[in-house]
Structures
1.
Amino acid sequence: MTLLLPLLAFALLAAGTHRQARILFGRPPPWRRRRALLGAGHATLLLSLWLRVAGPGRPRALVEWFGDLSFCALLVVLVLWAAEFVRLSSAARRGSPARGSDSR
Amino acid sequence: MAAVRPGFRQAMTWLHDWSGLIAGWLLLVIAAAGTLSVWRQELDAWTHPELARGAVDQAAAGQAAVDWLQAHAGRAPAWYLDLADARSPGTLAFWATPDGGFAQRTLSAETGSPDGIRDSLGGEFFYRLHFELQLPYPWGRLLAAAAGEMLLVVLLTGIVAHARIFKDFFTFRTGKGQRSWLDGHVVLGVLALPFHLMIAFTGVVTLIGLFMPWGGVAAFAGDRAALARALDPAAERPLSGRPAPLAPVAPMLRAAEARFGGAGISTVNVVHPGDAAATVVVAQGESPGIAVQERSITFDGVTGRPLASFVQGRPAMRVYDLLYGLHMGRFAGLASRWLYFLSGLMLTGAIATGLVLWTVKRRRPHGSGHTLVEKLNAGVIGGMPAAFAGFLLANRLLPGHLADRAGWEVRIVFGLWAAALVLAGVAPARRSWTWLLGAGALLCLAAVAGDAGLPVRRLPGGALSGDGVASGVDGTLIALAVCLGGAARLLARRRSPA
């Protein structure tokens, strides 16, 4: 649970950004959905912090929470990179010109 | 037309680029050595396979160590013992030698003797390299402190310079040359930014008494000895000149263990052994909280009677203990230590990618300065994995009877690193990177091969901690070898510059 919530939070935040939404869904999200995803992501982050520090050893739990954030954020970045890599590779194999996530 | 003055962000970008370059290679070594120091005790255990691993009777280990020191270093003015525990299978003993130097040996927790145990600094090498840079006191520490301050400048200017810190939070693109290097640098720098800021600030604070002593010295009217006594008020007595045998230390250590609760014992200092004024200062081990708990009991060395006890309660010192504890991470359990290790790797990676990015941004020929930076990057960054892996391989290959064996392990590290710099100096950059990364991969695998088949000794009834050490260190070496080998292969295949 200590890692699942930050992981979910960063996944929601990533899905709410233009570039990463293109990787995941092929197009940037509508304005309302974007706000909902970002709001849910931040709320999940706060929930993960609250659950972490709710128990005994609050200062130590806070330090460990920051460590969890770094690990989970890195994991999300690597998964997104792998997803774009697979998408571009399969498009290249099909022979169709794939657009990168940062193309305009 | 008048020149346009750079804006604040451009100025910070310039400062980030140049302070990062000037301090970068030094910061890389400090960050990498510090990252490995997270596993200092485990590396100690790996580099001393003769030592049995498991739960340790600290009182018995301390008595055994003192018995050996009485027989072999009886004339030393003091003995300093880092006592064995469940994570550290051996007792680290330091004492002054007649020629004015210091001797260090790893002593068995069972017998107190270093016989049959290979002489190696082990994890202590990376720990000392991290804050002393293998230089004499105080120059290494001053240089490390200066580098720490530069790291704070680099981090803060990097935050200002990075305009799209949230929009680009998850961005990582490969195969796009300079943009890929920038993405990698930013990802590694931003995702663990709280750690980077914490470790830089706490690292500087840890050494602050050395490089900014003026406030403390002024408070004690220039009397540095009085300042030192106030900071470390262990009850010491001057040498009496009257010989007296040292009382058995085991009962003193058991009494201290009972007072310290589950924290155990970290260090035992025996001052003026064999003199009537001998004292035994026993310091408490790790507390569960973040702040390092400074707590010690001083015993009369002749009678074994407790003389004084000290618990740090001064608010300013407790703040220091908190910051020091954050930096050392000794409070951390196994999972949290892996997070510290991962964050340290990310800091090391951010520094390395920043150094490479500096040259990639200025790819068009800029003369000898640019070439020098390229070659230093290849030699320092590319040579580092080979040098460190060489230390572990030398630990397995050097004969046990070699005089100054621990010193030779260290010489091999710097010899390999120097060879890497020479190679980078004479060969084209891409080729030297390929060879050095490939050599690093091979040396990592060779170190694992050197460890294969070595029996793991466990104390009777001990936990399975020994298996975790071998699998952790060897597994990390294999993972590193895969990454280095993959990078070398990628570079060898690539025909066009990045």
Note: Residues 50 and 102 of chain A are 35 Å apart (CA to CA).
2.
Amino acid sequence: MREVPHPTRAEVVPVPGQGAGVPGTPTCPSFPHKRESREGEDWVPAFAGMTTTIGHAGSVNPGLSALALLAACTLLSACAEPPAVTFNRDVAPVVYENCAPCHRPGEVGPFPFLTYEDVAKRASQIVEVTSEGFMPPWLPEPGPDFAGERRLTEPEIALFAAWVEEGKPEGEPEDLPPPPQWPTGWRLGEPDLVVEMPEPFVVPADGPDVFRNVVLPMPVDRPRWVRTLELRSDNPPVVHHVILQIDDTGAARRRDEADPGIGFGGMDLSDSRMPDGQFLGWTPGREPDPGIPGVAWRLEPGTDLTVQLHLTPTGKPEPVRAKVGVFFTDEPPTLHPYGLMLGSEEIDIPPGETAYPLSDRFVLPVDVEVLGLYPHAHYLGKEIEVSATLPDGTRRRLLSIPEWDFNWQDEYRYRQPLPLPAGTVLAMDYTYDNSEDNPRNPHYPPRRVRYGFESADEMGFLLLRLLPGSPEERDRLEVAYLEHVLEKKPGEWQARLRLGRLLLARGEVEAALAQLERARRDEPGDAVLLSQLGLALGRAGRTGEALEVLEEAVRLGPELASAHTNLGVAYHSLGRLAEAERAYRRALELDPGSPEAHLNLARIEAARGRPEAAAEHLRRALEALPAGSPLAEALSRRLAELEASR
Amino acid sequence: MSPPAHRPLPCFAALLLAAAAALAGCSQGAVELQDLEGRPVRPLADTEAAARVFLFTRSDCPISNRYAPEVRRLAERFAAQGVELYLVYPDPEEPAAAIRSHLEAFGYPLPALRDPRHALVAISGVRVTPEAAVFDRGGRMVYRGRIDDRYAGFGKARPEPTRRDLEEVLEALAAGREVEPHTTHAIGCFIADLS
């Protein structure tokens, strides 16, 4: 045997008479049963890290323990000193603050840290995981001032070790601070809307972590502004983290229907999107995001919430049911953060590679404030570095994670927004470890790994939540960002479509046309793209071509209300009012609330000298517009004029 | 008596005590644990079994619990091949009722023993839960360590084990082959905190 089988620990004093057995048979050393320490008891100082008490009332030989104590005391000088570190006075406050929020019933921790017993029976394990930095879980290096940072100071870490070394004394009862009170129920108050999984998903007992996507319809009858979300589940130890997105195309719902059981599996949620570029996530132990005053995202009727749950098997089947509390505001947003996504899909990691690099750079075209960052990689991710180099050459570290751990991914929000001037170069530099030395490697032996959504593939992106100074600057930021995307992926026609649409909205008609015509060469048969191109051609005065393109749009996409509206606009500008009206009404059949169709019909009706009909269309248009938006204001004024003129 | 000191016992004194214990001529066949009814059990007494496997566990150890399906698979595979498997609970604060609930919740078909005095812990030298100690027919410990290498450390789980150390040992013993005694480093909740 390479190790001595008999006990080498000598924290035990063999006590005669202990242990049953045939009289005369030598008994093996054993630990007498530990019980609560009490003042005045006979103690035998113990070997470091082990418990100290020996004492079974009635079975201890008092002479032997006193002798041992005397022996110990003669070897040590300060026998009568009170303990330097006690649980009640010193350790409990640190535990309540840093550990108990997750390590308590109803939270993700698999065991509680609320009482002396809870902590004492895991004390040396606590020393190990805190000195390794595994707990509390927080991946970034110190430096940036992130909200909700979970970190123990060096003295706090040393405190646990010192306490264990002293034998884990409990201390004076009056020193124990009152245990913290945590709110039950929704932390952000009563939600305006709660959407819930209709039935639980059962995580299997065994196997790797599970990703399950559930689709929750959001029943709103008109567009609403969402301030924030709060997620709760009925089986917190199983839920490792959650990502929430929205889907207004129905694609997620179709995938759900195709998959037996509630939701569908896998990590691929590419057909969902982050609303207004906002990352919605949930990680354990953090207070839900109350939102930022002035910030809200638009929720249209017919939108589903797609909730991707990252679930950890526990050894027995675990049912999980999650619900989401939605908090609305009636105030339209005054601030419009932009979600800028750096990253690359050019990932091709050979097996055995230990530091495969992946980088991206972006130059800010406008001043911004950085609200937060969400880095993302899968199991091979190793180092995450994000920096900003200002125009004057100063380099600031925004985020540094020396050892990425997919299981503890998180969104990092600055306590105070970080201002960065126009001209700043944002840099993302990641590395990946596809060797055997990476225990989290999904493949053994390691294999070639490429870009993909599933956990055995790799990704590398960084979502930065930026706050530009004005809507115009936001648009400029988006234009620059889309140009950056198209530089990397020139064939990405959807990005080109977005860019075209944006340029058109900014009045840059020629630039918009250039993008939309190029997009059409890449993707000739898309009705949405053709509809937008037709609109742009119309604005450029190329009305004949506009009509041709829009007629094709409507042919390819007969259910696309906006194509009919745009076709109507083309007819309208050519003076072909009857055809225009027919197109607008077709649009309304497909989308009864369409403000654009109503607005244009209002114009036709007004031109016909029918103010009541015009006013009615304006009212319908206003219903669909968020209150307080510039267009709504303009329409309200027009409506007032019309009504006054009657 | 004034509040006692809490200082570690100096090394040399500790070693003396260890030597004393060793010289006491301890016989491991006499090591006693308890079954869930509180009756004494001598798990290392002479046996006909090809192997005896003691899996140390706790009801509140997430790593141990995550191994439950694997333990059940091993039990099913080796039960009819002369291998005796036991779950051993070293937490003295864990009563029999809690252990019974635990066995049921995780579907363990194995007999459970309590080791509140850490007698078997001491003999085998296990440090964490889950950790296995395997004794051959002659009562010699031939393996102590992890069930497999699924965990490289806390929070560092492989998607699948690359080495199933315990299973390899049991395969050999069940087939009547010699196993060279060896240990592996197990990851889990520390037993030392429990006494």
Note: Chain B touches chain A through 75 residues (CB under 8 Å).
3.
Amino acid sequence: MKVTSVPKLNYDSAHNKTGLNTMPNLTGKVAKDSVSFGSVAGALKDGTSGIFKWIEKKGFFVEFLIVDTLSMIVPRIWIGLNRDKDKIGHYNYKAGAEEAGRECLSGPSMNLIPMGILALASMAKPSSHMGRETIKGLTYNMDKILEKTKTSEILSKQDQLDRQLADALFDDAFGSSSINKSQLAKLKDKFSNLLIEAKGLKGKDFDNKAKEFNAHIELINNQNKKAPFRADLIDLTTGVGKEDKTTLKGIELIKDFKNYSKDIVEKLSKQNFNKTGFVEDAKKFISKLTTNRLNLKTASALAAFVAVGSFLLYLPKLYQQGGLSPAQESAMRAEGGANENK
Amino acid sequence: MKINNATPTPIVNNPIQSTAKTTKPSFKGKVADFLTLSRAGTMSRNLFIANAFTFLLGSRLITSRDKDEKREILIRDVPTIVIAVMGVPVIGEIVAKIVQKKTGFAIMKDGEPGLIAKHIFQKTKVKEVADYGQLKSWYKYDENLTSGFKGFSERLAGLGDKVSLKKIYSALGGDIAEKLKPLKDNNDEFLKEVLKDKNLTKSLEKALTDGKNKVLKQAEFLKTTTKIAGFGLTLAIIGVLIPKLNIFITETIHKNKKAEKEQTEKV
């Protein structure tokens, strides 16, 4: 049985792990014999893996753009330019231009337009950026807090509510784990501190805090009796059913928490509630906001669908040139037609 | 909904009347899943394909000027749209299965079945290629792991039938690989023998703790090969094969028409 000494499990241990975060190694406990491939083949292997890691990090848009550019835009323009080149005697500029117009405009727009719409929706209502299940999960935990709230005054203190929500999220995910109580309390403290601190950060500072939070989640998960499937994931209960759960990465949760706090908890704290029946009123208020954000998500997707569709419908007018289609011209040349449009 | 396997389920003792609707699969739920934008803002896969078929294909067909262009659009664009969206992951999965079998490394994990897998092939679970973050979790040893090297190895061994701890750890090379050579192939027996040798276990732990260890690098490279295969084949099919096939068909049809015309003129 591996016995982990207490000093290892405190705050600084997060910084002892090699290669896990961007902060400099405080105690210098690095594996000195760090191995690498060390040869040309090795460097090549590293390089290619590095490229695809970057592509994966950027998401579907970059992957699609690469496929689109290399497999459709460039080859089709080339094939179009060379279509019947032997028969005409020069590059087929008409075919090439049409291919260029169509391919360059359709693929990227199908991604850029939805991304633009989501960006607009997120600027208006930050909570619409996170996943459906995540909003439901955060609201579910928020409800639990409201049930326990003794007086309506507490509802106006956003900081207290945020802290309670952070604690509730920890209990939700790790409350019934096998870690001993005192250790669990320390981990919970740091967990909530990180979430609250991240609320006021932006840009690079926020990213660093997110990485720290991610590392902390890994630390907690690794303390389970059984090795976790993936160390940086955290569970979130979304409802009363057994199947009502969702999972997200630490770096995602910290961003969603920040948005939820800014969007929903802040609005809750600015509302005035009566001294009696405030629990029900508060829950109704949150429920209305949650439903509104969920509907906004659906509406954004629908708007994106329609916007992209409209653009694609209009697109042929932008690239089609007058006269016959390149296909028709090519067919005529194959049949041996005498009058061909150049 | 994905559930992180090893974290225990929190017991909900007092089911609270939540204002969040419970997620029972309903028509409204299915529509909501369909009408979704990803975190990055791109349309979900099914939404993208539906959009492309409706508008890209639809518009090109409607505004096409002649029969030949219509045929070209169908032959070229229908397979292109599907392969552009699904080519890289699907080809990647096929290659990954082969890679796993040959090398004994695990690079796949369970995933949600897509529409076709769910409704046409009746699958409830599918294997998809794990992302690089997942590979790091599997192949980099964390000294804070309470379950220790044993838990780490057992997790690896449990990832698939063909996973071979011996082959994986041998990728470290050098002295360690030499020490591992005489050990048994079967995962359970291999692990038992390794754990008995305290020094060997320690040196394995030390080597695997490095964020740039050879095992992790190899696993990442194996995944990269699936990506290269996916991109390469997708590029070849969409970029060269389909367009050339398309033009070839057009020319053939019209060469035949020309031959027919000459035939009838002769008579």
Note: The first strand of chain B starts at residue 108 and ends at 111.
4.
Amino acid sequence: MLRDIKETLEEIKFSQEDFKYNEDNIITEYKQLEDEDGSLIIKIVSFLGGIFSALSLIALLFITEIIHSETSLIVLGIIFILTSVIVTKYVDKLIVETSTLTLYITGVIILSGGLLDKNVVNENLVILILFIISFLTLIIIERYLLSLTAVLIFNGSFFFWIIENKFYSLIILYLSINILLFTIFSLFEAKIITFNKKVAKLYDPFKVSFLVIILFVMSIVSEKLIFNFKIDNFYLSSILPSLIILYVISDILKLLNIDKLKYQVVAYLFSILFLALLFYSPTIIISILILILSFLVNFKTGFSVGILSFLYFLSRFYYDLSYTLLIKSIMLFSSGILFILFYIIISRKFKNR
Amino acid sequence: MKKIDREDIYIIARNSNCSADYIDKSLRYNIYNNKDDWEKFLKILFISLGAGFTVLGIVFFFAYNWQDLNKFIKFALIESIITLLIISIFFSKINILTKNIILTVASIIVGVLFAVFGQVYQTGADAYDLFLVWTLAITIWVIIANFPPLFIVYGILLNMTLTLYFSQVANIDVGLISLVVMNLSFSMIFLFLSKIETLKYPNWFLNLLLLNSISWLTISSMAFLFDYNKIIYFMINLFIIIIFYPFITFLAFKEKNIFIIAFVMISLITIVSSFIIKILEENSPFFILIFLIGSTTFLIKSLIKINKGWKDA
């Protein structure tokens, strides 16, 4: 609330000599916040509305034969994308967001379809064009949903380039980069949002996009959805999240004031053992990382997603045919005993305090 | 430092030259989880993971050795596990949450016991029999524990029982209506029980039950709509919607629950869209497009207005 932050602004003045703020902009942002309400359910409704409307619009364009050639697909696609970006830029209101989102998604789909159909450009060039369009969109507009869509296209184009060129082993690198970026965005939130206003506005869409891409890639690889390919050594994806979990544990131990060396050693030993036991199931380790990072920074969406993905990939573990039931039972049983021991230790430690 | 929320901090960061250090301190003080939150979280996390992983490890071990084990050893092992778990609930000094988690694990292993029974004696029973006896066997535990996750397990078992019964034995259309009524009743019972002070259930649990009921109503409406022979079932569904939706919308307004209001509206938009497709067929895309954009925009405006009204109040 505006009156609450006035006190905070006064507090900052005392601690930072050169502190300056733009009161008019702050008042404008609060007015917009009161008028628009950025709650999660409203974002979900807008996003779903945009997607389904886009599908209806595409169906309409084909049925009415407005689209009758590849050229009309390309021209209409460009018009829709431009209209969407221009309207969003100059009519910065939630009320038009569903419509502009519809136009943008429709524009991207029919433009890609037209370019691919015409065989003017090959698939790699189409991916590059979409990458450039999404990048330019991000530079121009700042509305959450359109930014999120553009970020997903921007980030996703790397994935589709990998798939198109069959560089499947690069997926491990791509996944690791997204995991690293999600971690950076979670742990260095303050540094990122104070970098500049544009970056601050794009912080949320980027963070959500990393989460979506991580889940998407994990689902594609483990469920063989949509694309049916095999990645050798996918377990190597466990390396980075495992290292990050160990790094984050140091933050958690500091937060819990666990400064005695023996407890720290026990915590690290347990963690290393647990991560080693689940090393060949990177999806479970990544889900745990999402859970821990999201809880650390109180990112509720990420936390819910972390729990659900963890439970899901754990249940899928049973169907992994690479390992015998005996090996799986040893891994799970050992991890379970470790967790129970850890629970007993921390219960005693917290009780003694 | 006065407590403010994340959006406030973002607004300050975007519109001032506030240092990253202060923003970081502000986030840690106002937003990030503190020591107490972590202690609670870690305890729940480790006992849940410990219980779950250990049980799964045991289950997988038996699955590996299963063919070679004598049938009495199979029963003895599973029954011993259930007995040990129940004894630990009665005769240990662990906290109530841990006991409830152990009871949930025991409830799941009861199902394993019945599955093994069916496998060993080749009872040839329809699959719904297994879920029916499993559901009945754990009913008293579920009532006594009064533990929302266990209620969810119970709800899943009820759904499995009904689904398998109607797909294997009886009429699938009657089955769909029965599932709608059963899930609705399940959520209504807990909504009413939640009014009792000592039985107040968490919001996530009530929201999940209502979302489940609304989903079933939506799916069944769409399923019946696209089949001429099932118009009577569609009318029954419509009747249930006319009674149920205004009632839970009224409750949602009373409890200031924006999620339920949104779910109900999304469901209605979906059903009306399906109706438009059904009536207009090839001519529907234009009207669907107008309807979707119009209804979504109206829904967003309404949700914002309602939320604002609650905040101002």
Note: The mean pLDDT of chain B is 86.
